[in-house]
Write a structure and sequence with these properties.
Number of strands: 0
Distance between the termini: 40 Å
Order of helices and strands: HHHHHHHHHHHHHH
Strand content: under 5%
Number of helices: 14
Helix content: over 70%
Largest sheet: none
Shape: globular
Radius of gyration: 20 Å
C-alpha cells in the first residue's frame, strides 16, 4: 500500500471516529441548548467552512450557474437531511444515551438499500440480504434495550422512536441526493445543502423557540461550545472532506464500508467521555449490526467485481 492510499484509509478511520464522536458531542449540546438554535449554529459554522473550501477550489461559480430546478432539489434535500435530521438528532439525545443512539447508524445503509431496490430497481444478492437482516435486528435489539420485538418498547422509549426519525431523514436525504448529484458535484451539493439547511434551521428556531433561545446562549458552559464547534468543524466539515477523498481514491463502496465503525466509536467514546454504561444488549446488538453492515459491503463488492455478460453476437470483430 503506497503512502497516499495509507493516508486515505487513515482519513476514513478518522471520519468514522468523528461521526461516532458526534453522538456524545450532540448529547452534551442537547442537554444545554434549544435544539433548533444549536443545530442552526452548527450548520452556520459548517456551511461557512464548506463555502470557503468551495471558493479555494475555484468552484464557487458553480453555485451561480445552478438552474431553478436544481435549487429546488437542493432545498428539498436540505429540508429533510439538515432540518429534519438535526431536529430528530438533538431531541432524541435529550433522553437517549449517546452510545445507544449511535446504533441508529446501522439502520441508515439498510433502509437506503431497501428503498433503492424499490425505487431504483437496484439488485441485491444473498450476502446483502442476510446483512440487511443482521443490521436491522441488531440495531433494533440494541435500541430497545434487549427486547425481542420493537413493539415491546414502552411509552418511555419516545427517544428511540425519534432516532428512527433520524434514520428516515437520512434515507430521504440520500435518495434525494442521488437525484441531485446526477447534475451537481458532491462538494457543491454539500456546501449548498448545509447553507440552505442553516437558514431553514435559523428561521425555524426564531419562529418556534423565539429570541429567548438565543439570549440564553450567553449562559452556556464553555464545554458545550467546544462540543458544538467540534460537531460543526469535525463531524460535519472535516469528516466530509475525508469521506470525499476516500470515495475519490478508493470508490464509494470501499469508503462506505468504514461506516460500520461509526457505532463502535460511538459506544466507545460515549463510555469514555460521558461515563455511559456499555450494556450486554448494546454489545450484542451492536456486534450484530456491525457484522450486518460488513456483510452488506462484502455483497456489494462481490456484485461490483462480477464480470458483465456479453450478449451473443455483440462482440466486435475485424
Amino acid at each position: 500500500m503506497n503512502s497516499s492510499k495509507y493516508s486515505t484509509h487513515l482519513g476514513l478511520i478518522g471520519m468514522a471516529a468523528l461521526w461516532g464522536a458526534s453522538w456524545p458531542w450532540g448529547r452534551v449540546v442537547a442537554q444545554a441548548m434549544q435544539p433548533l438554535a444549536a443545530a442552526s449554529l452548527r450548520f452556520l459554522l459548517a456551511s461557512a467552512v464548506l463555502l470557503l473550501w468551495l471558493g479555494r477550489t475555484g468552484r464557487m461559480g458553480r453555485l451561480r450557474n445552478l438552474a431553478g430546478r436544481q435549487w429546488l432539489g437542493l432545498a428539498a434535500a436540505s429540508a429533510v437531511g439538515v432540518l429534519g435530521y438535526s431536529l430528530f438528532f438533538l431531541l432524541a439525545l435529550k433522553t437517549v444515551p449517546a452510545g445507544k443512539a449511535a446504533m441508529v447508524v446501522a439502520l441508515n445503509p439498510v433502509l437506503t438499500m431497501l428503498f433503492a431496490v424499490l425505487l431504483f430497481r437496484e439488485r441485491i444478492n444473498l450476502p446483502i440480504f442476510i446483512g440487511l437482516g443482521l443490521a436491522v435486528g441488531g440495531a433494533l435489539y440494541a435500541l430497545s434495550g434487549g427486547h425481542r420485538g420493537w413493539a415491546q418498547v414502552s411509552a418511555a422509549g419516545a427517544g428511540e422512536w425519534l432516532l428512527l426519525g433520524c434514520a428516515a431523514c437520512w434515507v430521504g436525504y440520500t435518495l434525494l441526493g442521488r437525484l441531485v448529484l446526477a447534475s451537481i458535484d458532491p462538494l457543491t451539493t454539500t456546501a449548498a445543502t448545509a447553507s440552505i439547511g442553516a437558514l431553514l434551521l435559523l428561521g425555524a428556531s426564531l419562529v418556534a423557540e423565539g429570541p429567548s433561545a438565543w439570549a440564553g446562549l450567553v449562559h452556556v458552559r464553555a464545554e458545550v461550545w467546544y462540543s458544538l464547534v467540534a460537531l460543526a468543524l469535525g463531524a460535519t466539515a472535516l469528516a466530509y472532506a475525508w469521506y470525499l477523498k476516500g470515495v475519490q481514491e478508493l470508490g464509494a463502496g470501499a469508503a462506505a464500508a468504514y461506516m460500520s465503525l461509526v457505532p463502535l466509536f460511538g459506544m466507545l467514546l460515549s463510555s469514555l467521555w460521558l461515563a455511559e454504561p456499555v450494556t450486554a444488549s448494546l454489545l450484542r446488538g451492536g456486534g450484530a449490526a456491525i457484522a450486518g453492515m460488513l456483510l452488506m459491503n462484502a455483497g456489494r463488492m462481490r456484485m461490483a467485481q462480477r464480470p458483465k455478460r456479453i450478449a451473443p453476437g455483440s462482440a466486435r470483430t475485424g
